[in-house]
Amino acid sequence: MDRFNAMLVFTRIVELGGFAKAADSLQMPRASVTVLIKQLEAHVGVQLLHRTTRQVSPTLDGAAYYQRCVRLLADLEESEGLFRGSQPKGTLRVEMPAAVGRLVVFPALPEFTGRYPQIDLEIGLNDRPVDLIREGVDCVIRGGLTVDDSLVARPLVQMDQMTCASPDYLRAHGVPQSLDDLNGHRMIEYFSSASGKRYGLEFQLGDNVRLINLPKQVSVNSAEGYLAACVAGYGLVQTPRYHVAQQVREGSLQEVLSDCLPPRLALTALYPPHRQLSPRVRVFVDWLVDLCSRPDSGFKR
């Protein structure tokens, strides 16, 4: 039995919650995965996994063994890279907001893949919460405050935001020149499908943030839908500047209240602690930090 290969299979089963998913992820026959786990359990002398018809989960011994395995595998990968002097290689699974991927990451991505040709990227574009461990994701990029202390957080950038609306909406309701002019206006409400939290309009006034809730007819739970509703004329929105730069240039959206800006929004890379030393994660996050700091990234005014 190849113990390191067995550990890799075991950790992937724990992360994905099933033998079949782990086999597909590792591109191995499902029968081989089953045999390896039986051999591993026989070798360590304890049952590592609870198996039911619906799911697979680690036993108490299995959970402790999992933590040891991920550390050993990360150390092995790091050590092999150091002694071989080779470039990082393997599959890197990343999740990020669709707009960040489409407007910022993908235009520059050939630079990264050209520098690290042995890294295969699997990139998910969505705004949904991701269980990095269970879903086998190496790194996730998220906007806003991070609340999961179990993950390593690497700040990428503080994004400038703006308030905007469609020209048709502004013709019908007027262009507000100050916050007092917002009486009689409408907003499009953004809500989180995960937490149910609903977001109004926020304005940075010195060290304080003023929250303003306006009447709304449309609420959405995705960044793309939020902007689509704005272009359709349903009210005011607040969004990172990079996300609407093209629409503002083309005239389908118009910035308002430019003298009273929303607070900046943090963009952060998050990854599990046991992947902190992974060369693939490290070089990708380092590249993201550099990319987001560039003047042409679109994150700053």
From TrEMBL:
Q: Which GO terms describe its molecular function?
A: DNA-binding transcription factor activity; sequence-specific DNA binding
Q: Which residues form the HTH lysR-type domain?
A: 1-59
Which GO BP terms sit in this record?
Answer: DNA-templated transcription
Q: Which residues form a coiled coil?
A: none
Keywords, in A-Z order = DNA-binding, Transcription, Transcription regulation
Q: Which InterPro entries match?
A: LysR-type_TF_proteobact-type (IPR058163), LysR_HTH_N (IPR000847), LysR_subst-bd (IPR005119), WH-like_DNA-bd_sf (IPR036388), WH_DNA-bd_sf (IPR036390)
Specify the domain of life of the species encoding this protein: Bacteria
Q: Which family does it belong to?
A: Belongs to the LysR transcriptional regulatory family.
- Name of this chain's protein: LysR family transcriptional regulator
Organism, as annotated: Pseudomonas helleri
